[in-house]
Amino acid sequence: MATMFSVLRPNTVEEARADLSRRTLAKIPGNFARLIYLASTRDYNSARYYHSGLADRFSPEVSAKALELAHREVFRELVTVSLAHLALELELYMRSTRENPEDFFRAWQAVEPFRVVVPVGTNPTSQALFISNVRFALEVLRANQHSPQDH
Questions:
Q1: If we measure between CA atoms, which residue out of 28, 148, 133 comes closest to residue 85?
Q2: Which residues lie below 8 Å from residue 33, measured CB to CB, with a gap of 6+?
Q3: String of DSSP letters for 6-53
Q4: 70: which residues sit within 8 A by CB, 6+ positions away?
């Protein structure tokens, strides 16, 4: 009964969002990595978000809304940062993957996995700006890999 009551309280989504930030997102280094993580909680076929720990503590519905809001917030932050800051975020993410940088660049430029991290329903202009900025940041990072003294 306590779980049902917590779903009905108006601030439950904010509580779930705070829990997500404190328990999960705070442990992920950088907003780009957080964006990737949050997008990974969204099912590609239904666009529904799911996080088992959060769903157990709150409810699947409240959890999904908290994940969606967090995803939109992190995306909004990244779409408004400078290109230099975005390149730093992308570099931090790339390093966290432990992939060989050349393999990372090759895959990211060929497949463009960053396209699927955009929240559903995002304004087309924001989506295009984000994709363009990530492409540019990738080029900057790749160039800096070949000339680290200019970094």
A1: 133
A2: 92, 93, 96
A3: HHHSTTHHHHHHHHHHHHTGGGS-SHHHHHHHHHHTB-TTT--B--HH
A4: 17, 20, 21, 25, 34, 38
Residue with tokens 């939109």: 72
Tokens 């955009």 map to which residue? 118
The helix or strand, by DSSP H or E, that contains position 94, with its residue range, turns out to be helix 83-97
What secondary structure letter does DSSP report for 151?
-
How many degrees, rounded to 5, is the angle at CA 142 between CA 103 and CA 76? 95
Take residue 150 and report the two structure tokens written for it: 């200019």
Place 149 in a pLDDT band, splitting at 50, 70 and 90.
Answer: low
Identify whether the C-beta of residue 90 lies closer than 8 Å to the C-beta of residue 134.
yes
For 90-142, the pLDDT digits (tens) are 999 999 999 999 999 999 999 999 999 999 999 999 999 999 999 999 999 98
Give this prediction's pTM: 0.86
CB hemisphere CA count around 20 (13 angstroms) = 30
Asked whether residue 21 carries a pLDDT value surpassing 50, the answer given is yes
Q: What is the DSSP letter of 121?
A: T
